[in-house]
Here is the input.
Amino acid sequence: MNHIAPGARAGIYHYDEIDRQFVAERVEQFRKQVDRRLSGELTEEEFKPIRLMNGLYLQLHAYMLRIAVPYGVMSATQLRKLSAIGRKYDRGYGHFTTRQNLQYNWIKLEDTPAILHELAEVDMHALQTSGNCVRNVTTDPFVGAARDEVVDGRVYAEILRQWTTMHPEFTYLPRKFKIAISGAESDRAAVRIHDVGLLARRNDKGEPGFSFYVGGGLGRSPFVGKLVREWVAQEDFVAYLEAILRVYNQYGRRDNIYKARIKILVHELGLEKFTQEVEEEFARLRGPKYRLDPEIVDGIRQHFAPPPFEELPDHSEALERARASNPAFANWLAVNVAEHKAPGYAIATISLKPAGGIPGDATCDQMDLVADLAERYSFGELRVTHVQNLVLAHVKKDELYDLWKQLDAAGLGSANAGLIGDIIACPGLDYCALANARSIPLAQAISARFADPVRQRTIGELGIKISGCINACGHHHVGAIGILGVDKKGTEYYQITVGGDPTLTTAIGDILGPAVTETEAVDAIEAIVDVYLANRSDESERFIDTLARVGHAPFKERIYAAD
Amino acid sequence: MPLIENGRIGEDAWSFIPDGEPVPNDRPVIISFERWQAERDSFEGRNARLGVRLKSGTLAGAIAADLDRFSLVAVEFPKFRDGRGFSTARELRERYGYTGEIRAVGHVIPDQYLYLVRTGFSSVEAPEGTNPESWANALTEVTIAFQPSLDDTAPLSLLRRKLKVG
Here is the structure.
């Protein structure tokens, strides 16, 4: 069933003829569905979910097409195709999203069949990137490379990709359904803000298994996912998820779109009753039909075999010389580069957050460059992160300096991963029909205000997340500083929250005080930072730790003192 | 209304009797679940076949104990977007071992037909004027499936395979 790629590359699932046939059939099916809409056989109401399940949204000014990047991992060839499509059918750029996907914001409806056809040439599609179905499964962008990894999440994310594709029972759910999986000690996939969050672990025999968190989510009613089962063995992985989805499909609310997510069901039923329902389904579902065969898991694992790493010393002289000679590179190294499990290799984050830029946007020229760099330095593979950056996961330490010079020359060398300039922002009122306020200009203004990389590094770990409405696509609830756009009688205002945390110690931020205007917001953020710097016990105390220690009062006082 | 079976328009031997109207004893009829609950004793000794119609909020468990009384269970879709019926059918088949006819009624579109078949439905009541071609096509346009279902008992060890239908 597999044809594994040549040895110099690794890390992506390679389609076989059956996968290709499936995508081709779906493209043709959608073409016919469009025809049936145009002939009037399908009503607009009937066509809408079909269009959404093919990734096509109607935005404020144009159609948006969201391309699936399964668990955020793709090949250089695929990125080049995304670039070519952006050049030909959009305005020369694409936008990387918090679901580790890519979307085009200026698409013509009549071009979509041609775009889908071009995507299929590189084994890509836009299926299930929207609609009330199970969406693209996300995972740790450092998967298969991180030094703290316990289980390779790609294997199980790929199993879920297949299992959720056109699932006959779960394609008309009460609402969308998002799953994230993390197999490392640090959670880089924000698992507890997902409908289902999975922590892959190992028992004392070394066998993989999963902790299931259910009912997390942001939006107008934010909830942190609750632990429903501590340990689900690998063979029961699919059966347990099937049980959760069946309970949700039967009991999830359908009377009110704002109460239809599984988080509300878990909340209203209570964790105990919900768990009992799931366990009953699971006990019955367990058995040969739903058992995940270890051979299947091994077959899929082969696709993700490690690339042919050279045997290298972990210490790189070349790297140390470059670090000592170039302070800007040294700064990037300290901020954007993480430890790799293979000695002599490192994981490099490519920030899509230049000072004053639009978070997550990349021009087609930049995409082509990253594709070239991925081929030259990282076995032809790259990842999209849920904070809207890119990652080259397998770079030789000896070559990091060369890589950085080329990134920097193309405006991709910002040293701000995890810092105040690494802002998540939703498309906001510039694009989105649901938004109350613009997100992008505020993100641009804040990142311009904190442009100095040295100042950013001094401030340290501090995530700002901006949503243009209560639907919270910019994850503002879990920003160390969160900003929510609201509309007050036709004027855009911004409500500031503090103390949110997307990692395993998940926390929803608290509102600091009354909403402020766009200009006041930038000043308020700076004031919050100043108060933090003045109050922190030492440089190692992060913003959220200082906040937890000193409380809201000093921050409030500074921002609202003049009122 | 046209009845879709095996991808074609078929003969419908059944008729639905609205609540309050007399139930004929000489031909197959479908009654509402609510009527069944209220008048179940009156169906003792009936020889002609009986079917029951479930609203989308009535889940499989509600009728499970009485399934041997029914040759047909009709599952209602108030809106095609309300997908509870897919789970209801699957529960009827897998959990409660029901082997009679399961029929989708209400608002269902051809684009859902393959899902219906794969979750255990045997027939669909389509709206008047429906395009039969779209129903026939729905079973053959996608031939790959990634999960086990009612039309196929192979274990999950084959995550991906061709469907036999069509």
